[in-house]
From TrEMBL:
<feature type="site" description="Positions MEP for the nucleophilic attack">
    <location>
        <position position="159"/>
    </location>
</feature>
<dbReference type="InterPro" id="IPR003526">
    <property type="entry name" value="MECDP_synthase"/>
</dbReference>
<comment type="pathway">
    <text>Isoprenoid biosynthesis; isopentenyl diphosphate biosynthesis via DXP pathway; isopentenyl diphosphate from 1-deoxy-D-xylulose 5-phosphate: step 2/6.</text>
</comment>
<dbReference type="Pfam" id="PF01128">
    <property type="entry name" value="IspD"/>
</dbReference>
<dbReference type="GO" id="GO:0008685">
    <property type="term" value="F:2-C-methyl-D-erythritol 2,4-cyclodiphosphate synthase activity"/>
</dbReference>
<comment type="function">
    <text>Bifunctional enzyme that catalyzes the formation of 4-diphosphocytidyl-2-C-methyl-D-erythritol from CTP and 2-C-methyl-D-erythritol 4-phosphate (MEP) (IspD), and catalyzes the conversion of 4-diphosphocytidyl-2-C-methyl-D-erythritol 2-phosphate (CDP-ME2P) to 2-C-methyl-D-erythritol 2,4-cyclodiphosphate (ME-CPP) with a corresponding release of cytidine 5-monophosphate (CMP) (IspF).</text>
</comment>
<feature type="site" description="Transition state stabilizer">
    <location>
        <position position="18"/>
    </location>
</feature>
<keyword id="KW-0456">Lyase</keyword>
<dbReference type="InterPro" id="IPR026596">
    <property type="entry name" value="IspD/F"/>
</dbReference>
<comment type="pathway">
    <text>Isoprenoid biosynthesis; isopentenyl diphosphate biosynthesis via DXP pathway; isopentenyl diphosphate from 1-deoxy-D-xylulose 5-phosphate: step 4/6.</text>
</comment>
<dbReference type="InterPro" id="IPR018294">
    <property type="entry name" value="ISPD_synthase_CS"/>
</dbReference>
<feature type="region of interest" description="2-C-methyl-D-erythritol 4-phosphate cytidylyltransferase">
    <location>
        <begin position="1"/>
        <end position="237"/>
    </location>
</feature>
<feature type="binding site">
    <location>
        <position position="278"/>
    </location>
    <ligand>
        <name>a divalent metal cation</name>
    </ligand>
</feature>
<comment type="similarity">
    <text>Belongs to the IspF family.</text>
</comment>
<feature type="site" description="Transition state stabilizer">
    <location>
        <position position="369"/>
    </location>
</feature>
<protein>
    <recommendedName>
        <fullName>Bifunctional enzyme IspD/IspF</fullName>
        <ecNumber>2.7.7.60</ecNumber>
        <ecNumber>4.6.1.12</ecNumber>
    </recommendedName>
</protein>
<feature type="binding site">
    <location>
        <position position="375"/>
    </location>
    <ligand>
        <name>4-CDP-2-C-methyl-D-erythritol 2-phosphate</name>
    </ligand>
</feature>
Amino acid sequence: MRSKSIAVIIVAAGKGERAGAGGATDPKQYRLVAGQPVLSRTIAAFLSLPAITHVVPVIHADHAERYSALGLADARLMPAVHGGATRQSSVLEGLKALGPLRPDRVLIHDAARPFASLELITRVTTALDQHDGALPTLPVTDTIKRSLDGDLVATTEDRRQLFAAQTPQGFRFGQIFSAHMRAGTVRREFTDDAEIAEWAGLRVAMVEGERNNIKITHPEDFIRAERIVMADTGFETRIGTGYDVHPFAPGDAVWLCGVKIPHSAKLHGHSDADVALHALTDAILGAIGEGDIGVHFPPSDNQWKGAASTIFLRHAGTLVAARGGRIVNLDVTIVAEAPRIATHAPAMCAVIAETLGISASRVAVKATTNEKLGFIGREEGIVAMASASVELPRVD
């Protein structure tokens, strides 16, 4: 008897706006958790199970470039399809994409749940041997109150009969496809696929869920997600420092932390001479033991002449992510008599955060003078110092 084919729909078509915080602009499914995008983690969880035959991501039409940048490659990974205005319509688009393949079973999973374990997925698929559908649930432990007006308590629910639903939710493909097609013709919005199955008269079983199978919804969920990864892999903290100095040359502006500041001179250097980003890049490279900026971008190479130093910083951040690490915090101090830096600090933090794909709350930029002492006091140049705290998987 042939084995059952199992396809997976990853629902990633939302904009993830509730999860934004600290200047983060990327949708939650593309933001990093311990150096890896949420969506990449979610898809990888299913591709690690040999029984999965096809995976179809359903993405927002505006996110095609973001998805492509993930660089995901697997023979079972189908081309992404564009979702609809609601989760329900997005799932239907995924089901339509699988229609020509007619898999025996389908799992429908939220992209924002990156920690579904193999054991959890297997519990759901196994339950489909006896039932039309299955979903993981957790018993509700809080006392639940019902209110008719949001002000006064009307009644207390019996929590022994209440369970919190998770994904993946599994179904026999033909049945859930038919149920979704019918549900799309009624004036009603269903909260999840299990509700559509119930409405269609299918028998849906509950299997044991997992506490770590969290759905990233709010900014604080990213903190919990980082802790889950750290507990699974074991991380260690690395500290790096950077120092750079550049002299002034004739010009009308200086580049500092990716921000162009009008001045009576410019900084002299092979690239844009952004002394602050050079120090910061060295700090990150030092934290991961990757030498200094000159090793990766030698000044003898003319392709870097006049280059934006954000290129160097982004490269350092990419190296951290490639090791499965994450940047915890960055601290930059600029020492200059002029120009004045303080009013530009928020913009500088924003540039650094955007370049590295981290929250601006993890970046500090400070400025001070040298009290008219030395070459800085004589306004001959600018010095920058930086430190970087990075977490990497522990290697013993």
